[in-house]
């Protein structure tokens, strides 16, 4: 049986590379005619390249919009919300994937409030504001399913120094950053070993499980789902 998400408005943050980019490529073929995909990240050129790729390989009736914005600031969040306002009111599904994240500015100490706030602004606050803005822009109604997916990490539920013992990271620029520039020697060394031993997950492995969960529609709202438990 053909399974798909129907006519949907899909928003993916951090779509310029890594997991977000692969996610956009995997979701596009599962959308029906008239769907809209909003791709957000700072690198406009990369987003436009992905937009071209989706238009060539995907369906011509999928509208892809790019929002080249910094999600760590108010204007960036507002621009993405604005892109969702003009969407077709007849959609079956709204899917917002919070995927943008940044580990490049490790806080080396917690005495600089501005540094800490700017880090939290992207990784925490902007996702909350974007969720609220998008839910307001696309109000609930019968027949519309609104799904918010927070791409998270085991680091969110366990202290960071132990994370490598319990999960395999994704093979993306973020993992490269962790094994090259992490301030913690143990994390840097373990990440390097995982990479050298070919123990990293591909984005496609992780995405195929995520999309199966969404298509099966059997999760409980608010669940924290781990790749290895699925
Ligand atoms: N890699 C792993 O091992 C791993 C493990 C568990 C969970 N995760 C989670 O998976 C998600 C994706 O990770 P990834 O490995 O694909 O990361 P990545 O390769 O570093 O990509 C991060 C994405 O976020 C965007 N981004 C960063 N700062 C931004 C900002 N200020 N405004 C807008 N967009 C911004 C980047 O685009 P621009 O630079 O163009 O803005 C990029 O598209 C993250 O939430 C991460 O925490 C990753």
From TrEMBL:
Keywords of this entry: Cytoplasm, NADP, Oxidoreductase
GO BP term, example: tetrahydrobiopterin biosynthetic process
A GO term, aspect molecular function: sepiapterin reductase (NADP+) activity
Pfam families given in the database record: adh_short
Compartment(s): Cytoplasm
Gene Ontology terms: cellular component: cytoplasm
Entry protein name: Sepiapterin reductase
Provenance organism: Danionella cerebrum
């Amino acid at each position: 049986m053909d399974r798909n998400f129907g006519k949907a408005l899909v928003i993916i943050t951090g779509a310029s590379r890594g997991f977000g980019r692969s996610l956009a490529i995997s979701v596009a073929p599962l959308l029906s005619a008239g769907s809209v995909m909003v791709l957000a990240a700072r690198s406009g050129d990369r987003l436009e390249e992905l937009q071209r790729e989706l238009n060539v390989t995907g369906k011509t009736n999928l509208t892809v919009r790019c929002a080249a914005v910094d999600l760590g600031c108010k204007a960036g969040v507002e621009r993405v919300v604005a892109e969702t306002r003009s969407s077709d009111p007849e959609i079956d599904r709204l899917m917002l994937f919070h995927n943008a994240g940044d580990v490049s500015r490790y806080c080396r100490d917690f005495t600089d409030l501005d540094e800490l706030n700017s880090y939290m602004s992207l990784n925490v606050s902007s996702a909350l504001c974007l969720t609220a803005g998008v839910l307001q822009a696309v109000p609930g109604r019968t027949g519309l399913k609104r799904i918010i997916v927070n791409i998270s990490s085991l680091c969110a539920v366990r202290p960071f120094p132990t994370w490598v013992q319990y999960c395999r990271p994704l093979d993306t620029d973020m993992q490269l950053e962790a094994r090259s520039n992490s301030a913690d020697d143990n994390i840097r060394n373990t990440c390097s070993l995982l990479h050298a031993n070919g123990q990293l997950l591909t984005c496609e492995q992780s995405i195929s499980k995520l999309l199966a969960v969404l298509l099966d529609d059997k999760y409980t709202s608010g669940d924290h789902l781990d790749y290895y438990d699925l």
